[in-house]
Amino acid sequence: MLELETHELTLYSIILFLLLESLIEIYLTFRQLRVYHGSKTVPKELRDVMDAETFEKARLYGLDKANYGLFKTIVCDVMISLFELYYGFMALVWMRSTQLSETFGLNPRSEIHVGCLFALLLNVIGTLKEMPFKIYSTFVLEERHGFNKQTAGFFVKDQIKAFIVAQVLTLPVSAAFIYIVQIGGKYFFLWLWAFVGAISLLLIMIYPVYIAPLFDKFRPLEDGVLKTSITELANRLKFPLGQLFVVEGSKRSAHSNAYFTGLFGVKRIVLFDTLLLNKGLPADDASLTESDKGKGCKNEEVLAVLAHELGHWKLGHISKNIVIMQVQLFLIFLVFSQLFTYAPLYEAVGLPAGEKPILIGLMVIMMYVLAPYNTLISFAMTIMSRRFEYQADAFAVGLGYAKELGQALIKLQVDNLGFPVYDWMYSSWNHSHPTLLQRLERLTTEEGKKKR
User: Fold this and answer.
1) Residue 2 pLDDT
2) Where do the catalytic residues lie (predicted)?
3) Which of 163, 250, 281, 422 has its CA 20 to 30 A from that of 153?
């Protein structure tokens, strides 16, 4: 029997795990597809608030999304990704980057120069591969169910801006990463950890102020009852509210959301206009379409949603997630420092013996070597996230918003055509939030505890 080389064994082990992971995803999707096909009546808990027509629309929307997700998993994660891995796609891009570097006035012997060109080429190729799926998702799937609000021109501008911003951020970080590994000595992973951690925190702070406005229009929330109520809620919780904004998310999608930003000191709360009743406009406003009228949450329901979000802040969920992220970064860079000189990892992805580009080493270790660990951590984070959601709901109940939060959750589910019935295994693996029925049941329990 022919013995496998170490790098071949490494390659086949990686392919086997990735294939297994994709098959699990496919199996779970098939379980949920059975639910979509078999669920034809509104759950008894929602019969007073969701009619049969809306339930059917949500079922068909969920069915289309699941079929699309299944197709994308098979094409991208099974066919393309494993094909690229087996035939050494990353190595080919690296060699091409070396060849092209001199053409662009770069030094082909400088790993920083070649590495930046490599990152750029990968981003270009990745964007081109992803574009047909984005176009289909936006202009076919979302359009079919009434959620897409983008014109072709808006979409193209959006994609160009997103690509440019990504390169502005990616290329300097890639160069700095290579440089730190080259000069950092035996404990370079500590410097890497500090650098990437600082960059991550910086991006969290600057994204809402400088980057998000490149893509969406933000306006201050108008003076009125809602603004006064939000300010009073923030003061009651000693939340350091600085600014209240409404983002015109309706130009991109009909889906709703709300969030707050800022790590230290003054923070801002951002409401999607689709969260507000009639997008926050008078019911007779000429810009409102018939489909927009009546959608969104009333003021008390918006306050309940914000009470939930502020619960995440008050309970320290944001800080805990940041700490976990930093621990994760440290562990990844520690493993990288121990394995990045291991030659079979590079040979497994098609590089000739002796070549060990730092960026490829990082990608191979993060994406492939640590894949089992990443899967377990992702599942653990999903479990923790669901627990945090229950805690934030309980916090809102403690503030007296049990009824309003339940109404808001139902309204958002209906407006966004969220299907309320899920296979338990699919939901446990994929959903960072409990399902609507689970949250409504827990709200009832928490309200009962409060009354006792």
Assistant:
1) 45
2) 309, 393
3) 281
Of 439, 330, 331, the residue nearest 388 (C-alpha)? 439
Is 312 assigned to a binding site?
Answer: yes
For residue 201, the model assigns a pLDDT of 83
Look up the pTM and report it.
0.89
Q: Is residue 18 part of a domain?
A: no
Which of residues 248 and 444 earns the better pLDDT score? 444
Helix 299-314 vs helix 225-236: crossing angle, to nearest 10: 20
Asked whether residue 87 is domain-assigned, the answer is: no
Q: 7: annotated binding-site residue?
A: no
Active-site option among 393, 404, 415, 423: 393
Known active-site residue 347: no
What's the average model confidence in pLDDT over 28-33? Answer: 97
Q: Which pLDDT belongs to residue 165?
A: 94
Is 3 among the residues known to form the active site? no
Structural domains of the chain, count: 2
Measured distance CA(128)–CA(109) in Å, rounded: 28
Is 389 labelled a binding residue?
Answer: yes
Q: Which domain holds residue 195?
A: 102-201
Catalytic residue among 25, 111, 309, 446: 309
